[in-house]
Model the fold of this input.
Amino acid sequence: MQAFQLHQPNSVASATQQRAGKDDARFLAGGQSLLAAMRLGLNSASELIDLSKIPGLAGIKVDGNGIVIGAMTRHADVAASADVKRLIPALAALAGSIGDRQVRNMGTIGGSIANADPAADYPAAVLGLGATVQTNKRAIAADDFFKGFYETALAEDELITSVRFPVPTKGAYEKFKNPASRFALVGVFVAQTAGGVRVAVTGAAGSVFRVSAIEAALAGNWSAAAAKAVRVSADGLNSDLHASAEYRAHLITVLAARAVAAS
Amino acid sequence: MKADGIGARVTRKEDQRFLTGNGQYTDDITLSHQTYAAFVRSPHAHATINDIDTRAAAAMPGVVAIFTGKDIAATGIGGLPCGWLINNKDGTPMKEPPHHILAVDKARYVGDQVAVVIAETIEQARAAAEAVEVDYGVLPAVADTATASKAKASVHDAAADNVCYVWGHGDAAAVDRAIASAHKVSTLDIVNNRLIPNAIEPRAANAAYDKSSDSYTLYVSNQNPHVERLLMCAFVLGIPEHKVRVVAPDVGGGFGSKIFLYAEETVLVWASKRVGRPIKWTADRMESFLSDAHGRDHVTRVQMAMDGNGKFTGMKVTTTANVGAYLSTFASCVPTILYATLLAGQYATPAIYCEVTAVFTNTSPVDAYRGAGRPEATYVVERIVETAARDMGLDPAEIRRRNFITTFPYATPVGLTYDIGDYHACLEKAVKLADYAGFPARQAEAKARGKLRGIGFSSYIEACGLAPSNVAGALGARAGLFEAGEVRVHPTGKVTVFTGSHSHGQGHETTFAQVVADRLGIPIDDVDIQHGDTGKVLFGMGTYGSRSLAVGGTAIVKAVDKVIAKGKKIAAHLLEAADTDIEFKDGVFRVAGTDKNVPFASVALTAYVPHNYPLDKLEPGLNENAFYDPTNFTYPAGTHICEVEIDPDTGKTEIVKFTAVDDFGNIINPMIVEGQVHGGLAQGIGQALLEGCVYDKESGQLLTATYMDYAMPRADDLPNFTVGTHVTPCTHNPLGVKGCGEAGAIGSPPALINAITHAIGVRDIAMPATPERVWRAIQSRA
Amino acid sequence: MTIHISMKVNGKAVSADVAASTTLVEFIREHLRLTGTHVGCNTAQCGACTVHVDGRAVKSCNMLAAQASGAEVTTIEGLASANGDMHPMQAAFKEHHGLQCGFCTPGMVMSALELKGRFPNATDEQIREALDGNFCRCTGYQNIVKAVKAGLAA
Done:
């Protein structure tokens, strides 16, 4: 791996300070995407700021009608959390389906969301549940957070500290795995929330997105049949080695229907 | 049966070191004054190399030396050899363009090595390799098998149409007559998808030169160290063989990909003398994807002619095989000798003709991968047989029964003579184990749940135990294919066995010890197996083609028998009897019909402390070696039955049951044999469902160059397999064994694809049968 | 840039100044010369490099040594008892022929061990899913599943 400087700050303030003004510095959370990309030469950084020594960034708390998950909480801990399993079982299941066992032991929710990989699972939960991303500067609504291909609303020196997931009335996540990478070829999160029905799709386009047609269908009739009856356009969806846009469009309705059935 | 002898499920001797982290793989070996190499590889599929500027790289920290193809060519070093000559139909030889160990004028595939950087650390070597500036002139690439011979670009000037050879085998006229007079001709156009072997241990090498003895030691992750040495010394570097020791230590899987002499280790040996220090190179996984020899990659049309009863009357096969950018060590024989000769399968088809066009492309070299030619042949035969059954309205088991060969020896129309087999027995046992009779009910039940259920057969045969050297030689082999073994009995009666076979997962250290312990009547713990070191083992042709036990094991048996023969003479002297009166059984030499006896260990001691010994007639010592050259191939065969359930909404295929009944002849260690079958099945199922090497047809870029894009079978992709055996002992080796390493990979892909096409009612589906392909096939039918 | 790291590896305190970019597996293999942990892919897929960090199975090729500073690390070399007797999970792999070439084996055993206590009566399916981070090219996994089942029960 290319040489870099490593900082191991012990506070959010010093972490963001070290990041400020440096184009070529990166926060290191669990590192499961970043380090692999750096080893492949797909990503580089002159400085890495390791967040693992900052106290208080990991942990799961029930907060009113929601769950607050610290940014450095590992996927395995979310998957195993009794609170998450009780209140938002779909989120626990989603966390338990990310990558593989070892990746889940290292990877963090903050890292995953900040990376905004178009095929990652967590963005589907954040958007599907209408979560709020808390940073050192502000609270960002899910609908405002994901901006495009590996792009988020985060400023350069802005660090996610936690994510708050409101408990939905119903919710489920269905993922069709890419057989090679085990990322989502398509993943669909459906939820009945206080703000209405939300359907978020990952893996199918350059960024996680909501499918208003399915949301509208489900708002009137929360049933698998209603979801399946919607035809999703392949326009703008990914076509690659693993699947065509047409197939991905088809899977969106199939998975949305299955998620509704499982919710 | 002896508790640790032939037929026993003995746990493996080698496991303790592997399980405790004490294995010694090539990358684990670090020598004093070690340096590290990194290769500069072409990012282009096809490009002229106009200039290589190494100045900036040479000035980087830790750089010891940089060499380019021109540096190597300037010392008169030629290219890597191809071990098998194939002639065109017109008798002219195949095209063999040079395969430089570092490309000189042109790079011909993405990953082709153009320079090597040697540095104090691996990081320094890699950093400097990135700083080597190569001026490439990008050329149009040829990357599609089917159209390579019509491409405008030429991979090699010497083969303007990209054709390496056009080879024919069998009686074309007889087949044409059979087709013309057939009741029915079934036709199928199929592709055998290209695979990347992916042994989990990446290739690695560490070469050291010793000036005081002017000799070299090469540690290399390789399946046949003596062949490696022979090819490297005699055909490339011109170094006398006795000056090179090749050690293949623990090797983390091969599957064929580590048979070949590769450029990297050859460069390391060459360079080790120039830098005067050991040089280590270990591929990273992307290098493995790019530079390991790939497998399969055939495009085929097959026609099967039948009479009104579904009896096969003739088969015609036309194949285009991709050999990649250069001819790798056995590239030429895989799609010919190891392919067309197997096209009779288990059937008494009277006339068969096969024509193979081998094409060069701007892709990694293609060579033997688990099964090598025989999976491709089986795929052709078993797909067309199943298709023929459907075309004739016959049950797939029934059409096989009507066509099976039943009398042995049987000479096929494609040049092999099967010594023995019982194809009906394997089929009927598999039909029973798979509960074929219950399939219609299961299919109906699945349909009620909205699922599509299908079942498919594959009755494969393979030619293993490679090979009778004279037969191979007549077919173009440029090397012998015997095996060597040595049995060294120590004064205490303990035994060290040296074998030219190499174990990289097959468990030779256990199986071979079982054979020797059984034959000598001594405990298995008294027998150690040594392999993988040309400095210890007298000679060897190595491990591939399921040959280790049938050929290597037989060589050991022959050496053991020589030990027993000499032991009888010593015992006769000790027991004051005639040699001919001595029997050897259960570790004891005995005068026949008496209780006068002497145990094996006492005879061994006497051989080394020859105080009371016939020194006038017999040399002291008890150490024998043997070379064994088989008289025929062995013919493992069996029937695999696969049952699948498909989700029509997503196209996802689930294997609900996989049954394999194999005839491997006698079995030394059933536990190990089952493990080999499981592993082979996983690779065959991987080919059929998950794995596919994809090049961009225009640019020749490898699109599946990491595990993010190349789907490896994981534990949750596979079912538990139901395996069984039926035994007809091989007639021409003393153990009666046939070989089991490749059967799973050979038999399973057509069984799986036959099941999928059965479930969804289509004629063909491309491998890997990804969910999208299956879904599309279902849509096309709807 | 070098960085000072210290950790416990197989119960033994170790410390070193290493380049910041040194991965945990590089530290284990190159600095500590514990070569039982293998590198099969470098990109956190194959799992041959799996070790335990504070009791959790992680891919040591995809983690900086510095991230493990202060942690307790267990590698395959740390499982057998001092007299060479194998851990029950290791013994189960031998008994059930859960390995062939041995290259993926250390990572596979370390992954399997982490299941101990979590899946007391694991089904084949649960074990297969739990091993999704480890490739084996030799065994077809069937005997690994058998071995893990026996090892968890032992």
In short: Residues 227 and 541 of chain B are 6 Å apart (CA to CA). The mean pLDDT of chain B is 97. Chain B has three domains: 31-139+201-252+258-291, 378-465+632-781, 482-628.
